[in-house]
Amino acid sequence: xxxxxxxxxxxxxxxxxxxxxxxxxxxxxxxxxxxxxxxxxxxxxxxxxxxxxxxxxxxxxxxxxxxxxxxxxxxxxxxxxxxxxxxxxxxxxxxxxxxxxxxxxxxxxxxxxxxxxxxxxxxxxxxxxxxxxxxxxxxxxxxxxxxxxxxxxxxxxxxxxxxxxxxxxxxxxxxxxxxxxxxxxxxxxxxxxxxxxxxxxxxxxxxxxxxxxxxxxxxxxxxxxxxxxxxxxxxxxxxxxxxxxxxxxxxxxxxxxxxxxxxxxxxxxxxxxxxxxxxxxxxxxxxxxxxxxxxxxxxxxxxxxxxxxxxxxxxxxxxxxxxxxxxxxxxxxxxxxxxxxxxxxxxxxxxxxxxxxxxxxxxxxxxxxxxxxxxxxxxxxxxxxxxxxxxxxxxxxxxxxxxxxxxxxxxxxxxxxxxxxxxxxxxxxxxxxxxxxxxxxxxxxxxxxxxxxxxxxxxxxxxxxxx
Length: 467
Known about the structure:
- This protein has 467 residues and is of the alpha/beta class.
- The chain has three domains: 3-83, no CATH class; 122-350, Aspartate Aminotransferase, domain 2; 360-464, Alpha-Beta Complex (Aspartate Aminotransferase, domain 1), CATH 3.90.1150.
- Helices cover 44% and strands 17% of the residues.
- The protein contains 21 helices and 18 strands.
- It has helices spanning 3-10, 16-20, 23-32, 34-53, 59-62, 68-84, 112-123, 140-150, 163-171, 184-193, 196-201, 217-223, 270-275, 279-283, 311-318, 321-326, 330-344, 352-356, 360-378, 417-424, 452-464; strands spanning 94-95, 99-101, 130-131, 136-137, 157-160, 179-183, 205-209, 228-234, 256-260, 263-264, 277-278, 289-292, 304-308, 382-395, 403-412, 431-432, 434-436, 439-442.
- The protein has a seven-stranded mixed β-sheet.
- α3 crosses α4, α4 crosses α6 (68-84) and α7 crosses α17.
- The longest helix has 20 residues, at 34-53.
């Protein structure tokens, strides 16, 4: 079906908020809770959205019921089924550790809108490779480039699968048979991010400067001969004590290859601003080459952008056959396109890192709401208190970037906290929290509103069934 025709039918779909304003639905919210109604309406709207976007001809969807009555009746049916049938609930992990990116219990989370946009693109024919206005063939790369240009990205950039791929692309081209200088600490970092073997296998000689506990700009300048480049590593999960700052590279920036994940695109969050650079601010360093992973502070897919100041080097890498092997696949480009589009449209709620970083005031309000309910449900079994602590961290490896947050502490009166913690992690809707002596510590930063009921039910169940 024609793209514009599909869109005309999608425009007939009501918003979830419109449906919830209907008195009948408002009454159902009081009975079942807003979280459950939201979940059921999302299912109904997603199903209807899918039905329209996958129709092969207009006759399949022309006579569908688009009235509000349809959605109200459908909602009632689903709620009835929910009551009468024992259905297995989706198992979720409730993260009360405060670890934003965890390789053990979670990953990046995106809004339903982002996921729906991506699903639409991947499950249908689309105009990402055809320009309707100009009536001519386009390409996904061109569309991505247009978007990146609007977001003020440099024109000379390449995208590869990961940092290791970026290093390989460089060593296979302009760095071949040249020398790199690094400080001793960066040599240790190189082991952590992986590409040391790539450098050695491609015959790159490395000379180290400075000392383990100190390095100065003079140490670099003394060793910076022709055909030598500085490799600097600045990753969020690696301590940077005693390293020189970006400003100290000023007189040699045309020789610097910098690797970092400490860059964001747009943000209003002070935590992100404190720990990373805004893209245009970062690019003012004017390094020869920047290898940037945006997955940490911008929530983009895991890949590496290579920004190249020199046109000759840019063309050499771009035209090398190895670049075609290392470049990201079409699916990743589509994911990237929709996330960058959300940034361009300033729809930051679609981006995980923006969505979950509640302010101190917001987290305190949430804590008070949950604490009141906990006192009612299990107040006779535990002592409940609040403390401030550095428990919000960006990922499992991050020794820096911890933020002060108010935390809830549950200290069982007559039960073993270790046994409680073990039971919380098992069964339906496992909860991960901190165990300290005989107390359980909960950071509710990452507890989404839709999961609060499951959280409280799990806590009540475990405390009630532990002897």
